[in-house]
Amino acid sequence: MTSRFQIPPWWRNRRYLPWLVQGAVALVIAVVVAFLLTNLLLNLTARGLLLSWSWLGQPAGFDLAETILPFDASLPYWRAMLAGLVNTLRVVIAGLVGATVLGTLIGTASFSSNGLLRRLARVYVEVIRNIPLLLQLIFWYFVVFLALPNGRDALQLPGIVLAKSGLFLGSPELVDGVWQAPLRFTVEFGALLTGLVVYTAAFIAEVVRGGIASVPKGQWEAATSLGFSPLLTLQRIVLPQALRVIVPGLNTQYISLAKNSSLAVACGFTDLYSVSETTLNQTGRAIEVMLILLGSYLVIDLVISALMNGLNGLVQLRER
Amino acid sequence: MVLLHRFTAVVPLIASLALVGCAGDGGGVQSQKMAAIKARGSLICGVDGKLPGFSFVGPDGRYSGLDVDICKATAAAVLSDPAKVTYRDLSATERFAALSSGEVDLLSRNTTMTLSRDAPGGNALAFAPTTFFDGQAVMVPATSGIRSLKDLAGKPICVETGTSTELNLADRMRELNATYTPLKFQSGDQTFAAYLQGRCVAVTSDRSQLAAKRTGFPNPAEHLLLPDMLSKEPLNPATINADPAWADAVRWVVYSLIQAEELGVTAANIDAKVAEAKANKNLAQLRRFFGVEGDLGKQLGLPADFVVRTVKAVGNYGEMFERNVGTGSPLKLERGMNQQWRQGGLMYSPPFL
Predict the structure, then answer these.
(1) For A310, B25, B68, B223, which has the most beta carbons within 10 A of its beta carbon?
(2) Sign of the CA dihedral with A39 first, then A41, A46, and A47 last
C-alpha cells in the first residue's frame, strides 16, 4: 500500500496563506489611503490651495510670551513654530519627571502599612482620574495660580518670589510694578505642568500599584525573614521585579502626557499648538500647519516610545 | 506616432468638455449654494454667539444682535422667512475652515476684511459690505494709571489667538519700540477671565467687542478704553469665492438695509411706502428698490421684492444699529463712522439700478 503524498494547491499552503491575507489587507488599506490622498489633492487643486511651504520663511509678525530661543516678530514662521516646539518639549520633559516621581510615590503609598496614607492614595487616584484634564487645567490656572497675590504683595523669600505672573528665582526685582529675575517660570507654565503632573501621576500610580501587586507575596515575606526593612525590601527586592510590568504601562502614560500637553492653549501657555493656531490664522495654510503639528506630535511620541522600549529591554528578565 | 496624435487630439477635447462643465455650474443666476439652502429650507449661519450686541443667546434661547440680523435678513430674502436660520457658534480659529468647507453658508461673525482673507491665494473669501466699522482698542482697569499704549511697555497684555488683533498689537508695539508679554487664549471668555483675574494689565480687541464684554463685567465702570486706535477693523459678513452668485446676493442684501435707511424706509413704514410706490408711477427709485418694476431681484436670483422682506425682517441699518449696539442698548456705542454718508459716516450703498 502506497499512500502518495499530495502537495496541496498554493492557496491552501500554510506557507503562503498568511502572506495572502496580509497582502489583501495591505491592498485594501493602500486603496483607501490612495483614495483619500487623491481626493485631498483634487479638492485642494480645485481651490488653488496646493501644498506650499514658502510661507515658513516669511516673517511671523507676532510676538510670543515666553521662549527659550530668542524670538521677535521679525523672525520667520519656522522660528516661531520651533520656539513653540521647544516650549512643548520643556513642559513634556518636566512633566514626565514630575509625574513619574509623584505617581511612584502614590503607587507605593497604596501598599503602606499606614492605613491613612493607603486610603489617601486611593482617594487621590479615584478623584483625579475621573475629572477631565481640561477642567483640571482651567481649575489650576484660573482658580489656583491666578489667585496668587501680585506686585508688592507677592510671596517673597530670599532669592525667590512667587507672584501672579510667575515664579522668579535669583534676586528678583520689582521694576515698575512687574517682577524681573534672571530665572523665571510663568504661571501659565506652572499651571500646565501642575495639571499634567497631577493628572498623569494618578494613572502612573495605578500602573505602579499593578506592578508591585504582580510580585509574589513570598518575595516580601522572604525579604522580611532575612531582616530587610520594608523600605529596603521595596527598593532592592520588589521594585526591580515590578519594573518588568511597570515599564510597558508607563510608556502609554508618557505618550498620553505628551499629547495632552497640547491642551496648553486652555491656560495661555505658548506651546506648539498655540503658535500653530496663530500661524494658521495668519497664513490660511490649514493643511500644511496641521501636517507640521501631526508630524511633530508623532515624532515626539515615537521617540518616547523608542526610549521606553529600550528601557523595557534593560529591565526584562535575562534568561541564561 | 499615430497613437500619439490621437492622444494629443483627445486632450483638448476633454479639456473643453471640462470647461463647458464649469461654465454650466458657475454661470446663470442660480447659485449652487442658494439652491442647496432652498432645498434644505434653512440658512446655516456662522456666528460668534457670545458677543452681546453682535450675536448673543438671550434668556429666551434666541439669538440676537447685529451679526444675527444679517443672517435673518439673508434668510428673509432667500427663504422668505427670517426665522429659518440655523446658527453655528464658531471660534475665531474655526470660522474660515467652517466657511470654506461649506459647513456654514454665510459667516456673520465680526470678521475683519483683510487682503489675505479676500485673496484667492489666501483664505479665498468673498466679503459682503462692511456692517460695522470698528477699530482695535485696549481696555485697562481705571485704577491702573495706564493712559496710553506707551504705558504698557514691559507689561503683560491678554489677547485672543487666531485674530488679526494679535498682529496689530505686535506691529504697534514694535513701532513704539516697547517690549510686552502677549498672553494668548483660545476663547474670548478665557481672555477676559484672565484679564479680570489680574493676570494682564490690559486686554485688547475690537472696540465694539470690548464695550460688549464690559457690559458683563461685575463693575463695568472700573474699566476704561484707551483712546488709541490700533487698527482699522471693518467687520464684514463673508461667503466663499467659489460661488460668486451667492456672494452677490448676500452683498445686495446688506446694501438693501443701508439703502433703506438712506431712503427713510423703516420696518414700521415699509407697507405704506410700498403702497405709495405702487400707486405713484413717478416714484421710480422706490419702485425699482421694492421690485414693483424692473427685475433687480431676479438678476440676483432672489425674489423681486427681496428688499421688502429684508427690511420687514430686521428694519433698516439704522434701526438694526440702535436696537443692538446703539446708545439705547447696553453697549451704548455712538454711530460714529457707522453713520450714513450724508451725515458724514461711511455707510454708503451703491444705487439700486
Answers:
(1) B68
(2) positive
Is the Cβ of B178 closer than 8 Å to some Cβ of chain A?
Answer: no
How many residues are listed for chain A in this entry? 320
Please state the separation of Cα A130 from the chain's center in Å.
18
Cα Rg of chain B (Å, integer): 23
Strand duo B181-185 + A160-163: pairing: unpaired
> Which amino acid is it at B97?
A
The partner residue sitting opposite B162, judged by closest CB among A47, A150, A278, is A278
State whether residue B197 sits within 8 Å of chain A by CB. yes
Spell out where chain A has E strands: 155-157, 160-163, 166-169, 173-175, 178-180, 183-186
Beta strands in A78-226 (DSSP E): 155-157, 160-163, 166-169, 173-175, 178-180, 183-186
Q: What are the residues whose beta carbons fall under 8 Å from the beta carbon of B62, sequence distance 6 or more?
A: none
CA distance B148 to A208: 56
Residue type present at position B289: F
- Read off the pLDDT band of A101 (50, 70, 90): very high
Search chain A and give the residue with CA nearest B92: A281
Identify the burial level of A249 via C-beta atoms within 10 angstroms of its C-beta, where 0-12 means exposed, 13-18 middle and 19 or more buried: middle
CB within 8 Å of A50: residues ≥ 6 apart: A41, A44
pLDDT at residue number A319: 66
Cβ B92–A282 below 8 Å, yes or no?
Answer: no
Q: Output the pLDDT for position A1.
A: 52
Q: Using only C-alpha atoms, what is the Rg of chain A?
A: 27
Asked if residues B97 and B123 have their Cβ atoms less than 8 Å apart, the reply is no
Asked if the Cβ–Cβ distance from B161 to A265 is below 8 Å, we say yes
ipTM: 0.75
Place of cell 479680570: B196
Q: Is the pLDDT of residue B5 over 80?
A: no
Mean pLDDT of A89-93: 96
Lowest mean pLDDT among A132-141, A176-185, B209-218, B266-275: A176-185
Cβ <8 Å between A63 and B242: no
pLDDT (0 to 100) of residue B6: 43
3-state secondary structure of A122: helix
Distance CA A156, CA A166 (A): 12
Percent of chain B's residues with pLDDT above 90:
59
Q: Are strands B156-160 and B202-206 parallel, antiparallel or unpaired?
A: parallel
CA separation for the pair A256, A276 (Å, rounded) = 20
Taking CA atoms, A58 is separated from A283, A303, B124, in Å, by 10, 30, 20
What confidence tier does A3 reach under pLDDT thresholds 50, 70, 90? Answer: low
Helix (H) or strand (E) holding A231: helix A230-232
Q: The C-alpha cell of A251 is what?
A: 510608556
Alpha carbon distance B235, B108 (integer Å): 9
Q: Which residues of B touch A64 (CB under 8 A)?
A: 182
Cβ-nearest to B198 among A164, A188, A274: A164
Mutate one of A135, A180, A186, A281 to test the B interface: name it (highest B CB count within 10 A): A281
Distance from CA of A203 to the nearest CA of B (A): 28
Query: What residues have CB less than 8 Å from A315, skipping those under 6 apart?
Result: A240, A243, A244, A247
Encoded amino acid at A191, one letter? A
Highest mean pLDDT among A80-94, A231-245, A262-276, B107-121: A80-94
CB B230 within 8 A of CB B168: yes
**Residue A151 corresponds to which cell in the numbers above?**
506686585
Indicate the pairing of strand B233-240 with strand B132-134.
antiparallel
